[in-house]
Specification:
With about 375 residues, the chain is mainly beta. It has two domains: about 100 residues, no CATH class; about 180 residues, TolB, C-terminal domain (Neuraminidase, 6 Propeller), CATH 2.120.10.30. Helix content is about 15%, strand content about 35%. The chain is built from two helices and 25 strands. Strand 13 and strand 14 form a beta hairpin. The termini are far apart.
Length: about 375
Amino acid sequence: MFASGNHCPTSVQLVKATARLYSGSQEMSRRTQLGVFVAVMFSLVVSLHLSLAVAQEVQTEIRARARVLNDIGPGLIAVKRDSSGRYFVAASSANSIAIFSADSKRLGQIPPANLQDVSKDANNTPKISFIADFDLDATGHLVVADRGANTVKVFDADGSLLSTTPIPAPSSVAALPGEEFAVTSLRYHWLMGIYAYADRLIRAVGEPADFAKGLDPARTPDLGRVSSDPAGNLYFAFSFLPVPTVRRFDRFGYAGNEIALDEFSPEQHRRELFPVDAGDHPRPVRQQINALGVDPVTQEIWIAVGDELLRFDKDGARTGLYRTLSPAGAPLSTKLILVEPDRLLLGTEAWGIFDFARPAKASAASPSP
């Protein structure tokens, strides 16, 4: 009710006031809608720019020159090179390590096939049951993760067995200076253990819960893989984090810098202009690091995710991104990386090992794409 007297508004005044209010509300609504539209478009432009930058960087392609070590076919496990240029390769359901010369000629194997007394242990069982991984130390000893025997075994260059260390389900191994090695296990509740050759645990490195809250190691047995360089640095490639990640540790287990490949996280593959119903949206596949290699001289780091090869300096700054192709131009999904002075050897699951010319480093003066 309005009060009586001269202050009572007329019908015309009421209509005009209502019209002004309506017009004002329409203007405010238009401004609000315009603000929302501008914010959304700005977000889309930023996302599109970032996506185009990544896509443009990925377009650098490198093509294999040839397949090498042709005796090695499907089921490649590991390949290493010693100081004399010989190659040591394990493949398929391996219970031995093949040895090749620098020009790919077969030289023999470890344990030697023709010496029964050398190829058997004291219990007359094969010295190697199943190789999950192996590495070479600076003196030429082979450190073998024998998952079939639940041990890590160290062999001399002539194939004689030097030591045996019980390890439950070893999954990867890396040699360290001073006759030590780091090993991962499908049964560990830490990232890796560091052992002396003389069958002694020196230290355990990393609690998984420190890296992923709520992680149950019993439900995530494969925590990752370990590699090393001649300086004794350790590189742990995580398999249980949502973002593919590599962390460097020193030989005493102290953590250093970290490389997180955010562009390969599941969330990066869910960005859409128009979202669909959750029931119609396929669950994104989490990508993982397939292979890691370290330059023994510069400590440059090479990481493979599918057919993409990422290059980093020793401090973890990215210096290159490549797509790997076969000699015929087909995509190659890399399983292992061996970094040599003038080339890269990239191993695959099905097609063996390929030789790539080592890409030149991008010039610091060249403009970014």
